[in-house]
Specification:
The complex is a heterodimer. Helix content of chain A is 37%, strand content 2%. By secondary structure, chain A is mostly helical. In chain A, strands 1-2 form a two-stranded antiparallel sheet. Chain A has a two-stranded antiparallel sheet with strand order 3-4. The chains are: A mainly alpha, B alpha+beta.
Chain lengths: 341, 231
């Protein structure tokens, strides 16, 4: 008996080893409420796997992607602050250079058809190409990043685990980074719990929700809090930036001054606000929508004449907006810096 | 045992029949010319009383198909081929098709279609690190022509044409039809002289993003592709 056990022991060990490998590479499914729309990203075609997600996570937090090995994706997209760059109106990158826009929050990206404030990027897998090669962000050639990863002591092994190939291609690097970011699902705020019947709004939050539904939700549509489109929200053009938004991509005059409608989820943590970070507080934002609308040809029709939100309504609205904070998402150990890797 | 033998025979017959069906190779070659000569990158050419050098000439050919009497008879399964004049092998596209295919026309796209442009991170010739992808704005550069013009008064002007665009109304990929008898070698001339002639280089030295201009120049480029030889 002990003899036969000895004989099969190596087989068992190899067997369990393989099983655990398969286990770690098993398809990962993102979890979201059944009432949500179907994601834009085709998970049936490209199922997520743990090894790719973990590789993407390491890449996301690794400054090796930048020319001076100082700037990582997380430099401007910090998990604890709704994956954006707080306290800076306009995000800065390599060598303290400054771009022209406030970094976006990264949330519920699987439902996003376009990326960036002007929708310049059409697929999450190719998004990372833009910040890596932008001279004011990471300033590096993607080909040079691949060479650095290839000569790193750890990455080739991780690429074998994830893709079965130690030769690091742009496709595999980009897919891994996309997979990690596709797991950024924020669906457990107080708002979500109230909708699921597990919590209750306070009186102020409830009043704020009603104002939100009548005045804000046509653009910041529930449950993602964005309609996914581009809108001109009545901000006068900053003459120093002269940013025409979506027009720069489509060259259609009807897209002039339109920017992607950002999700409001975790808005408590994502200040400053707007594409150029011009407002530091939610009070300033609501003041703009009430009194500061700048009329122009492409202004969203809902905003003509301003939203006329009274002072009391503004307070209630802010109480509601704070129910969009999802601490489970913001402080998720699975999304934070990978300390064990 | 008998099962293995049967399986072997099935496999063997499968391989043989697949081979006989795919025995034919058709060469689609692109020969860039200038002044009637085959282009050499970096060489000076006299053209319209100026001196021209071309430093880069790269373009995508995709969706290669053969037609017979207006009906599609074959479609190349490779999604795209990058033709790069600095790499002679890339100018010769080899297509494998079945022996029993006959065609009277070759059709292809100069550039990359919209669906492929929106399909995420791709590999092979569509790897975005090949210098034919706009990183700041998703989309492939269908055609990249770069060079310099030195005029009689020795004033030098560099030109860069990065032509592409996959969103309407600036869909830049161009369909090219070549009427050609059933043959195994199709040589196509890319007449860069004709292309350069179509551009007012005094007014326009640079097109670097999708636009109406990119659309016009893409048309001029595909119009400069002619059947040179077919055997």
């Amino acid at each position: 008996m002990p003899n036969s056990l000895q004989r099969i022991a190596p087989i068992l060990i190899i067997g369990f080893g393989l099983l655990s490998l398969i286990q770690s590479n098993e398809d990962v499914k993102i979890v979201y409420p059944s009432t949500w729309p179907k994601p834009v990203y085709d998970f049936d075609e490209n199922p997520l796997s743990n090894s790719k997600i973990q590789l993407g996570r390491k890449l996301f937090y690794d400054p090796i992607l930048s020319k001076d090995n100082m700037v990582s994706c997380a430099s401007c997209h910090l998990s604890y602050t709704a994956f954006t760059h707080v306290d800076h109106a306009i995000s800065h990158g390599i060598g303290d250079s400054i771009g022209i826009r406030n970094s976006m929050t990264l949330v519920n990206l699987a439902w996003s058809k376009h990326f960036m404030w002007d929708g310049a990027i059409n697929h999450i897998e190719v998004q990372a190409l833009a910040p890596i090669s932008h001279e004011d962000e990471m300033g590096e050639e993607v080909g040079a990043v691949l060479l650095k990863l290839q000569s790193d002591p750890n990455y080739p092994v991780l690429f074998v685990q994830a893709f079965g190939d130690s030769v690091i291609s742009s496709q595999n690097m980009l897919k891994a980074m996309a997979e990690f970011q596709l797991t950024f699902v924020s669906a457990n705020s107080k708002y979500d719990r109230v909708l699921a019947g597990k919590d209750h709004f306070s009186e102020q939050e409830e009043k704020g929700y009603q104002i939100f539904q009548s005045k804000c939700s046509s653009c910041h549509t529930e449950p993602l809090f964005t309609n996914g489109y581009f809108e001109n929200n009545g901000l006068p053009v900053d003459p120093n930036l002269n940013d025409m938004g979506r027009f720069g991509i489509t060259k259609r005059s009807s897209d002039s001054l339109k920017f992607k409608v950002p999700s409001l989820r975790n808005i408590e943590f994502s200040q400053p606000y707007m594409h150029d970070g011009r407002f530091l507080s939610l009070h300033e934002v609501l003041k703009h929508y009430s009194e500061g609308i700048h009329e122009s040809n492409t202004l969203s029709s809902q905003l003509k004449g301003g939203l006329n939100i009274t002072e009391d309504e503004r307070l209630n609205l802010i109480h509601f907006l704070l129910t969009l904070t999802d601490k489970e998402f913001l402080f998720s150990p699975d999304l934070a810096y990978p300390r064990n890797n | 045992m008998s099962f293995r033998l049967t399986a072997f025979f099935i496999l063997f017959t499968g391989v043989v029949s697949a081979q006989s069906n795919h025995a034919r190779s058709v060469q689609l070659s692109f020969v860039p010319t200038i002044n009637g000569e085959n282009l050499i990158l970096g060489k000076s050419y006299s053209l319209f009383s100026d001196t021209f050098t071309i430093s880069a000439c790269r373009f995508y050919i995709s969706q290669i198909q053969f037609l017979k009497d207006g009906e599609f008879v074959f479609a190349d399964p490779t999604s795209a081929h990058l033709v790069d004049c600095s790499d002679e092998r890339s100018t010769n596209i080899e297509i494998f098709c079945s022996n029993n295919i006959e065609f009277t026309r070759a059709q292809f796209l100069v550039g990359i279609d919209s669906a492929t442009n929106s399909s995420g991170a791709l590999d092979g010739d569509l790897d975005p690190t090949k210098g034919m992808y706009w990183s700041w704005q998703s989309g492939y550069i269908n055609i990249k022509i770069e060079g310099a013009k030195t005029s009689e008064d020795s004033e030098k002007a560099e030109f860069q044409f990065h032509l592409g665009g996959y969103l309407p109304p600036n869909l830049a990929a161009q369909i090219v039809n070549i009427d050609v008898a059933n043959t195994d070698s199709i040589q196509l001339e890319v007449d860069l002289e004709q292309f350069l002639k179509s551009i007012d280089l005094k007014a326009r030295q640079r097109v670097m993003s999708p636009s109406a201009e990119a659309l016009i120049l893409s048309g001029e480029f595909s119009n400069s592709i002619h059947l040179k030889n077919a055997q």
